[in-house]
């Protein structure tokens, strides 16, 4: 069922992406005195610094490489499947989410007027729609239709969304396996490694202001979407996000007789990539931070 739904969502996202923008936005070009209204839509049109295909590839391949490298120590097909499927869930869900918003809401990219090439001058001011006839729609554009369609789909930033959905997921996976934020203070390189994918996502998102493909608020919206799905997908696959005792453990499938038991007697620390702080020495890991403490308290009260 998961694979069927993934195929349907992938086809749906592709189909919506091919469609032109659903909304017919109106925009001003000149004030009544002939001054240009929105110079922020007048930046030059240029190629992406990071093309869309490369952003998607990096968002998948970088986390996948770390997942496979971790298996040098873990040697767990279950963990590979759990982590990879979670990554795909994050990327696919983010893509569908942001594609629909682009299609239904969109907006003008910073270079919109450069590809629109509006057939209007100051003498046409007052012949449009709205108050004083200052508003026009894409019918005044003389540029390439596909470029205009793309320039009308700025909100949210797909690059930012996909970057954070994949690379933040990578950081969460590294934290779970290497116990970076755990019950001991690890080496500094682990701390740096945790934030390295996040830096990559920030740089990918920030590059969109350099090539004039997005406004800062598009980037912010896309980043938030990616962050939400990265956290959601990781928790969907693993027993916790921040609780260091459980955030490396894949959750059992729906077909399993029982769900995951958060009792400390059944802690599976064999799937941790860390050897410090009593990990992988068959002893209990104590402490109950964040989202597992309430579960443990409930279990203890029921005993």
Word description of this protein:
- 51% of the residues lie in helices and 1% in strands.
- It has 303 residues and is mainly alpha-helical.
- The protein has one domain (2-237).
- The two termini are 37 Å apart.
Question: What topology emerges from the helices and strands here?
Answer:
Layout: H1 2-18, E1 27-28, H2 52-74, H3 77-104, H4 112-116, E2 135-136, H5 145-151, H6 158-178, H7 188-210, H8 216-237, H9 293-302
Antiparallel strand pairs: 1-2
Kindly summarize this structure in a few lines.
This protein has 303 residues and is mostly helical.
What would the keywords be for this entry?
303 residues; mainly alpha; two-stranded antiparallel ribbon
Distance between the termini: 37 Å
The gyration radius over C-alpha positions equals: 24 Å
> Structurally, how many domains make up the residues?
1
The number of E-state strands comes to 2
Global outline: elongated
Structural class: mainly alpha
């Amino acid at each position: 069922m998961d694979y069927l739904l993934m195929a349907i969502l992938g086809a749906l996202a592709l189909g919506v992406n091919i469609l032109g923008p659903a909304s017919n936005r109106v925009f001003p070009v000149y004030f009544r005195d002939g001054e240009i209204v929105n110079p922020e839509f007048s930046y030059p049109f240029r190629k992406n610094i990071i093309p869309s295909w490369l952003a998607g590839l990096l968002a998948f391949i970088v986390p996948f490489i770390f997942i496979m490298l971790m298996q040098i120590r873990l040697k767990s097909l279950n963990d590979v499947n759990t982590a990879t499927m979670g990554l795909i869930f994050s990327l696919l869900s983010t893509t569908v989410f942001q594609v629909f918003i682009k299609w239904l809401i969109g907006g003008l990219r910073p270079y919109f007027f450069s590809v629109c090439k509006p057939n209007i001058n100051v003498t046409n001011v007052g012949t449009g729609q709205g108050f004083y006839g200052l508003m026009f729609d894409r019918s005044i554009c003389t540029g390439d239709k596909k470029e205009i369609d793309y320039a009308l789909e700025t909100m949210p930033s797909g690059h930012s969304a996909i970057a954070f959905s994949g690379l933040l997921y990578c950081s969460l996976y590294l934290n779970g396996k290497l116990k970076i934020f755990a019950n001991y203070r690890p080496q500094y390189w682990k701390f740096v490694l945790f934030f390295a994918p996040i830096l990559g996502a920030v740089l990918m998102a920030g590059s969109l202001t350099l090539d004039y493909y997005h406004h800062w608020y598009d980037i912010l919206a896309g980043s938030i979407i990616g962050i939400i799905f990265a956290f959601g997908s990781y928790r969907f696959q693993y027993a916790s996000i921040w609780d260091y005792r459980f955030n490396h453990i894949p959750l059992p499938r729906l077909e399993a007789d029982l769900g995951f038991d958060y009792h400390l007697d059944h802690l599976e620390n064999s799937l941790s990539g860390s050897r410090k702080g009593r990990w992988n020495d068959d002893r209990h890991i104590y402490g109950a931070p964040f989202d597992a403490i309430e579960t443990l308290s409930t279990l203890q009260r029921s005993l």
